[in-house]
Every structure is written in structure tokens, then in C-alpha cells.
From TrEMBL:
Pathway: Protein modification; protein glycosylation. It comes from Muraenolepis orangiensis. It is a single-pass type II membrane protein. This is Hexosyltransferase. It is found in: Golgi apparatus membrane. One of its GO terms (biological process) is protein O-linked glycosylation.
Length: 497
């Protein structure tokens, strides 16, 4: 498996998002057409690019600079003012092929138009005076050298086939779009023309909002990292009022950070206002980390690796870090208690999946085609809802990511990185510590876990306040109290009676 995934992508660059008014699907189509046309025009030779191309759900991470050594007056120019990163956050899922089909059709139609223009320019360069009318043109063609006639006929047949294919694709059922696009992908022979299940990493992203000195100042034992959408202030405030306010647990310092990217894909007034609100929120709470990538589901792998980079650069003095989703309930006391006896090096735990089956259903959110991963199962990995790493691992994972082609499923990507490093994940000491299925709130049950997905309509603040009540035992079995709330630190304390 590893030899199929290893690829040194140190020089691969994902351009950053910049201000521009040309964001959107049209820009992506134009760039895809530019790539396709340049390959055709240069005789399907690889054109040097600054970085390489990647597609997420059939959409480009567009390059600012795309040049081909082969000079031609019919070269398709890139749109002026093209931003470095035009990726919009698509609403459909990677397993669906709606936007893939739209992209494919647009590429075919645009390519046909470009090639027709190219043929006209070539004929003009051959001194065919089109103003002479049909008779002069027919005379010119009749007296054309045989090899030129053959070239013209080949061009006509080739692009007639493209037009016919495009018409057929438009009329086909959506279930057949995928095979059409796959055929197109195979025809590109190594050019990253259609890779909807990969993201491009590594790349050194910068930070717009940062807390560079907080770890050095507080010297935490445990760092809680919560990836969250920029607009989701509600979840951030709920976490700050519940388990996120736990700053000292079992005499160990705990620090909280929220990791987010850029909102949306452009720089409209609404997004500028949101940036101002984020800066104000950062000044008030001092717990935001905002990087310059577009924040969306398809970029979760980028978000995860940016988190690992930040931990290595700014928080390597801590002992452990936990990545946890914003919709989770976290029992910080049980977490710290588990980590007091955990290994300090090469340690990763959570809800570990072993021999997890790769889903082949195109309608699945986690669909993965065989052309991307031919094996039937994933390597061992920890579900992304919440996992813990020792702080020696972030640097190793960042280095491994330079040799492992990153998939858009971020927790699986970390599993491949751990496999590359030859480090096995650790199962938690108690299998009931992590829950992916939402657990109905029960004070006693919640006292025995570390993290669980909470029911969507639960009042998380009310749950937390009830969980931390000190007026009665958390658990009662045979009228004997088993756990009490520690009112100073929170969480459940075993009874000594």
C-alpha cells in the first residue's frame, strides 16, 4: 500500500486565497480549459508550472502562473487578475458527480471553441486570405500540401468527436458522468487533471490571527484544539462557557484554541465584517488561530495539517494536544487522568478504527473510488471527532505528509501518515471513553467517558451545569455514592467511602 501512496510533494504548492473579483466556477472552468489546451497545444508534453495542479470535487486549486515553453499566437491566456486560490467550498459531496459533470461539459465546450479559434489563426498564418470568399478558400485547400490536408482532417475529426462526446455526456444519466470523467482523467496520462479525492499539501500557510506566545506563557500540559467555522461564534461561546473554561485540572494547566480559516471565497462586505468581528473576538478572548486557507469541508486535511504545524512551531513544550470537534461533550478531568499514565512519545489515541472498510458507494459522503485507493480497507486511524497526540508527533506527521498523498478525509490521511512513520495507534485504556454515536445525557454515564457526540438539540450549557452540580453524587449504585463532583476543578471524583 505504501509504495502506491509515497510521493515526494515537497515542491507542491497550494496558492493562498487572495482578494479578487474572479472567484467562482467560471474561473475554475477557464483554468481547467487552460490546462487542457496547453497540453494539447504542446503535443501533450508536460508544461513547467510553478507548483502542480490539484482538484477537489472536480474543481481547481488554480495557479497564478502557468507557462508553456511552446510559443504560439493562439495560446489561451489566463484571466487577468487571477487569484492564487479560487477554490469555492462546494455544496455537494465528493461522492457525487454533479459539479464534476458540469466541469467536464464546460471544459469540452470551451476547448472546442478554443481549438476552432486556433485553427482559424493557423490558417491565417498560412496566408489564406479569408476575404477572398468561399472560392478562394476552396482553391487554397485544393492546392494545400498533402500533409497539411491530413492535419486539417485530423483536427476536424478529433474535435468533431469532442463535440459529439460533449453532446452525449449532456444527455447521459448522472450515474454515467463519473465514468466519462474517469476516461478523461486517464487520457491526461499523469497530469493532475482530475483528482477530486486529493488535496494539495504540504504548504506553509500563514496566520492572520495568532497566539504565538500563549503556550510559552502558560506552559500547558494539555492543549485543546477545536477546528470550527469562522462564522460559528455560537459554538465557540458555548465551549468557552462549558468544558473549554477548564484551565487547571488535576493540577495540570489546560489551554484552549479555536482553529479557523478564511470565510467564503471572496472579499465581499459580509466577509470583511466577519473578519472585523473575528479580530474583536480574538482581542476579547485570546484563543483564536486563523490561517489563510479557505475554510470548508473539502479543506479539512489542510486545516488539520495547519494545526499540526502550529503545534510544532508554537506549542511543542506541552505534553499532549487533543483535537476535538465543536459539537462534542468533553470530560476534561477524565482526559487528563488518562494522560497522566500515557506514553509521552509517539502516542496517538482516540476512537481507533481497525480494518475500516473503504466505501465504494458514490452517494456516500466518504466515497473513495478504486482508482484512488485500490485496497479494501484503510490503515488504522482515529476518528476525527476527537483524538489525542503526544507533542512529539506533530513534527513527524508534517514530515510524513511530504511523502503521503493527502486525501480529503483528514483522519484517514493521518492514519496513512502514521503508517508511513511505522507508528501504531494506541487503543484507549477503557473502550467506553470515546463515543461517535450521540449519547443521551445521563449524569452517571457522562462521568465515565472522555468525549461523546452530543445530541443535536441538547442544551449543552444546561447539560454542563447539571453535570457539575455539587448537591448530590453523580452516580448512585446500591445507595452508595461512587462519584462526586469536584467543585474546584470540575468532573467526577471517585468517592473514598
Amino acid at each position: 500500500m505504501r509504495h502506491e501512496l509515497k510521493k515526494d510533494v515537497t515542491n507542491d504548492v497550494v496558492p493562498r486565497s487572495t482578494s479578487s473579483e474572479v472567484h467562482g466556477i467560471q474561473v475554475r472552468h477557464q483554468n481547467s480549459v487552460a490546462l487542457l489546451f496547453q497540453n494539447i497545444h504542446c503535443g501533450f508534453q508536460r508544461c513547467p508550472v510553478k507548483g502542480t495542479w490539484a482538484l477537489i470535487n472536480g474543481q481547481d486549486l488554480a495557479q497564478q502562473h502557468f507557462q508553456c515553453n511552446h510559443q504560439s499566437q493562439s495560446r489561451l491566456p489566463l484571466p487577468p487578475g487571477l487569484p492564487g486560490h479560487t477554490l469555492q467550498c462546494p455544496g455537494d459531496r465528493p461522492g457525487r458527480i454533479d459539479s464534476s459533470a458540469r466541469l467536464y461539459k464546460a471544459m469540452m465546450v470551451h476547448t472546442l471553441d478554443v481549438r476552432l479559434q486556433s485553427i482559424m489563426a493557423w490558417r491565417k498564418a498560412s496566408q489564406v486570405d479569408l476575404r477572398l470568399g468561399a472560392e478562394a478558400e476552396a482553391f487554397s485547400v485544393a492546392n494545400m500540401q498533402p500533409w497539411k490536408k491530413l492535419c486539417c482532417r485530423c483536427y476536424t475529426v478529433f474535435f468533431s468527436l469532442i463535440l459529439a462526446t460533449s453532446i452525449i455526456v449532456i444527455a447521459m444519466d448522472s450515474s454515467l458522468f463519473q465514468s466519462s470523467v474517469r476516461m478523461f482523467d486517464i487520457s491526461m496520462k499523469g497530469e493532475e487533471a482530475y483528482k477530486p479525492y486529493y488535496v494539495k499539501y504540504p504548504h506553509k500557510y500563514g496566520f492572520i490571527i495568532n497566539e504565538e506566545e500563549k503556550c510559552q506563557r502558560l506552559r500547558p500540559f494539555l492543549v485543546l484544539m477545536v477546528p470550527v467555522a469562522p462564522h460559528n461564534m455560537v459554538d465557540r461561546d458555548i465551549i468557552r462557557r462549558t468544558w473549554g473554561k477548564e484551565s487547571v485540572v488535576l493540577e495540570k494547566v489546560v489551554s484552549l484554541f479555536f482553529l479557523l480559516g478564511l470565510p467564503g471565497g471572496g472579499q465581499g462586505d459580509g466577509e470583511k465584517l466577519q473578519e472585523q468581528q473575528l479580530r474583536a473576538e480574538s482581542r476579547e478572548h485570546g484563543d483564536l488561530l486563523q490561517s489563510d486557507f479557505l475554510d470548508c469541508y473539502k479543506n479539512l486535511t489542510i486545516k488539520t495539517m495547519v494545526m499540526m504545524e502550529w503545534l510544532d512551531d508554537h506549542c511543542s513544550t506541552a505534553s499532549y494536544a487533543m483535537k476535538i470537534d465543536s459539537d462534542m461533550f468533553l470530560n476534561v478531568r477524565n482526559l487528563v487522568g488518562m494522560l497522566l499514565d500515557a506514553p509521552r512519545d509517539s502516542y496517538m489515541t482516540g476512537l481507533v478504527q481497525t480494518q475500516a472498510e473503504i466505501l465504494r458507494d458514490p452517494t456516500s459522503k466518504w466515497y473513495m473510488p478504486m482508482v484512488v485507493l485500490p485496497q479494501s480497507t484503510y490503515p488504522r486511524y482515529a476518528l476525527g471527532l476527537g483524538y489525542v497526540v503526544s507533542l512529539d508527533l506533530p513534527r513527524k506527521l508534517v514530515e510524513a505528509s511530504r511523502h503521503v498523498r493527502p486525501l480529503y478525509i483528514e483522519d484517514v490521511h493521518l492514519g496513512f501518515c502514521m503508517e508511513y512513520l511505522g507508528i501504531d495507534l494506541s487503543d484507549p485504556p477503557y473502550e467506553g471513553y470515546f463515543h461517535v454515536v450521540p449519547m443521551p445525557y445521563d449524569r452517571c454515564d457522562y462521568s465515565k467517558l472522555i468525549a461523546t457526540t452530543i445530541e443535536p438539540y441538547s442544551d449543552r450549557i444546561q447539560v454542563w451545569e447539571d453535570f457539575n452540580r455539587a448537591d448530590q453524587p453523580i452516580c448512585q449504585e446500591d445507595n452508595q455514592p461512587l462519584f462526586f463532583v469536584d467543585t474546584q476543578r470540575g468532573g467526577a471524583t471517585p468517592s473514598l467511602s
